[in-house]
C-alpha cells in the first residue's frame, strides 16, 4: 500500500539514479583528454599502460566517485540541518563544519608542516567533528536546552571564530598560503581514491543513519513542543542528527575541502519535488546533490581549458543566486 501510494516518488528515485550514473559516466569520458566508452572498457579488460588508460584508472574514475559521494553527503547533511533547526539557510557551514575543518588543515600546514592530502583528510575530519561538538555544547546552555535559534547562533559564532583564526594564520605564515588555497577552494581534482576509501565507512554510516531518522525529523520539524507532546525524545533525535551531520559533512569536507552551497540549495529543490516529508527529502537530496556536484565538476573542466576552475567556485556561481532568492523570500515572509 505504501509503495503504491508513493509510486511516483519511487519512480523519481529510479530515474534520478539513472541520471546520477549518466553524469558519473560523463565525468569519466568528458574533459581535456579525449576518452571514449571503448577506452574505458579496455582500461579494465585490456589495460596497456597508455596515457588514456592511466588517466581513466587513476584520475577520472576516482574523481567521478568522489564527486558523487561528496555531493550526496553535503546535500543530505544540509537537509537534516534544515529539518532540525527550522532554518531554510542552514547548511554545513552554519554548524561551523567547513570553518572547523579549514582551521585544522591550515593549523597542520603552518604549525606542523604537513603537506599530504591524506593528512589534510584526517585533520579536516577532526576539525569538523570538534566544531559540531562545540556548537551543540553551546546550544544546550540555558534553561530552554537545545533550541534551533541557539544552535544557529552558536554555529555562526564558531564559524566566524574559526574563519578568523584561519585567516590570521595564513597572514602570519605566507609560505603556507599556496599549499592551503587549493584545499580551501574546494575541489575533487587530484584527490586520490584512497582518500575517499579512508573515510567512506563514516560517510556510509551517515548515509544509512540519515535515511533512518527521516520520520523523527518530520515530527521535530513541526515544533519542539508538539514533538515533546507526541512523546518524542527531542534531545536524543538532535544528538543523533548531529552525529549524522558530522559523519556526512565532516567526511565530505575531509575529502574535497569546503565546498559550499550544495547543502543550502539542494534540500529546497528536493522539497519542491516531493514535499516536506523528510523520509523522501533526504534521499532525493542525496541524489540531486550528487548530480549537481558532478555537473559542476564537469563544467569546471571547460571554463578555462586547459586549466580548471575549482569546483567550489562553480557551486558558488550556481548557488549564490539561489541563496539570495531564499534569503529574500524569507525576509518577505
UniProtKB/TrEMBL annotation:
Main localization category: membrane
Alphabetical UniProt keywords: Cell membrane, Membrane, Transmembrane, Transmembrane helix, Transport
UniProt-annotated location(s): Cell membrane
Pfam families reported in the protein's UniProt record: FecCD
Gene Ontology cellular-component terms listed: plasma membrane
Membrane topology qualifier: Multi-pass membrane protein
Keyword Zinc: no
Domain of life: Bacteria
Transmembrane segments: 12-32, 61-81, 93-114, 120-139, 151-173, 193-214, 235-266, 278-296, 308-327
Keyword Cell membrane found: yes
GO MF annotations in UniProt: transmembrane transporter activity
One GO-annotated biological process of the protein: siderophore-iron import into cell
Family assignment from sequence similarity: Belongs to the binding-protein-dependent transport system permease family. FecCD subfamily.
Protein name (Swiss-Prot/TrEMBL): Iron ABC transporter permease
Organism phylogeny: Bacteria, Bacillati, Bacillota, Bacilli, Bacillales
Amino acid at each position: 500500500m505504501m509503495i503504491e501510494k508513493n509510486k511516483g516518488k519511487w519512480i523519481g528515485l529510479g530515474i534520478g539514479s539513472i541520471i546520477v550514473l549518466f553524469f558519473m559516466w560523463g565525468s569519466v569520458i568528458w574533459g581535456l583528454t579525449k576518452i571514449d566508452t571503448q577506452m574505458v572498457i579496455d582500461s579494465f579488460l585490456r589495460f596497456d599502460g597508455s596515457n588514456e588508460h592511466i588517466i581513466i584508472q587513476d584520475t577520472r574514475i576516482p574523481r567521478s566517485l568522489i564527486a558523487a559521494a561528496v555531493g550526496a553527503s553535503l546535500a543530505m547533511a544540509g537537509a537534516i540541518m534544515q529539518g532540525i533547526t527550522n532554518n531554510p539557510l542552514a547548511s554545513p557551514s552554519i554548524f561551523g563544519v567547513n570553518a572547523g575543518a579549514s582551521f585544522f588543515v591550515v593549523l597542520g600546514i603552518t604549525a606542523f608542516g604537513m603537506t599530504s592530502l591524506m593528512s589534510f583528510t584526517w585533520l579536516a575530519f577532526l576539525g569538523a567533528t570538534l566544531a559540531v561538538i562545540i556548537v551543540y555544547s553551546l546550544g544546550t546552555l540555558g534553561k530552554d536546552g537545545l533550541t534551533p535559534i541557539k544552535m544557529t547562533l552558536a554555529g555562526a559564532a564558531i564559524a566566524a571564530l574559526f574563519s578568523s583564526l584561519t585567516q590570521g594564520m595564513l597572514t602570519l605564515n605566507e609560505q603556507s598560503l599556496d599549499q592551503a588555497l587549493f584545499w580551501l577552494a574546494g575541489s575533487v581534482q587530484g584527490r586520490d581514491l584512497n582518500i575517499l576509501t579512508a573515510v567512506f565507512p563514516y560517510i556510509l554510516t551517515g548515509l544509512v543513519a540519515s535515511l533512518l531518522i527521516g520520520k523523527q525529523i518530520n515530527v521535530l520539524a513541526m515544533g519542539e513542543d508538539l514533538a515533546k507532546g507526541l512523546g518524542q525524545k527531542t534531545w536524543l533525535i538532535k544528538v543523533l542528527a548531529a552525529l549524522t551531520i558530522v559523519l556526512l559533512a565532516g567526511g565530505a569536507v575531509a575529502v574535497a575541502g569546503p565546498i559550499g552551497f550544495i547543502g543550502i540549495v539542494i534540500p529546497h529543490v528536493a522539497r519542491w519535488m516531493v514535499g516536506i516529508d523528510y523520509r523522501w527529502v533526504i534521499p532525493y537530496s542525496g541524489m540531486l546533490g550528487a548530480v549537481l556536484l558532478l555537473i559542476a565538476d564537469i563544467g569546471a573542466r571547460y571554463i578555462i581549458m586547459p586549466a580548471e576552475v575549482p569546483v567550489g567556485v562553480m557551486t558558488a556561481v550556481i548557488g549564490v543566486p539561489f541563496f539570495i532568492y531564499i534569503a529574500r523570500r524569507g525576509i518577505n515572509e
